Amino acid sequence: MNSRRWHPGLPQVATLRLDGVDIVVTHGDQFGSPTPAKLVAAFPQAEILVFGHTHRPLLELVDRTVTVMNPGGAGAPRFGLAPSVGIMELEPGIPPRARLVTLGLG
Q: What are phi and psi of 4, to 5 degrees?
């Protein structure tokens, strides 16, 4: 994996622990076409993986323990996709709750 920064001042990968959950956030371009399988293989310690790059909303549970989310893009529509965001709720002792929300235009 390269250490190139996709945006000045921001790391390619950020890791954090919130409410006892290990989270990895990455743009995802280092994988070419990022997929849940590629992300889980690259970050086996993560319980939540959030990525972007494709702008395609995705919410997938892998092996019943890892949540992979691509919130899509909240800005101007790209690739014929409606703007969207992801919302994830964490609470100690409870599996993460997540959803994708398509943003209305206009």
A: -55, 140
Among the CATH numbers 3.60.21.10, 3.30.930.10, 3.40.50.2300, 3.50.50.60, which is that of 13-102? 3.60.21.10
Angstrom distance (rounded) from CA 29 to CA 103? 24
Q: Tell me 52's DSSP state.
A: -
- 55: tokens are 């702008």
Residue-wise pLDDT tens digits, 22-54: 999 998 888 889 999 999 999 999 999 999 888
Rounded distance between C-alpha atoms, residue 85 and residue 103, angstroms: 7
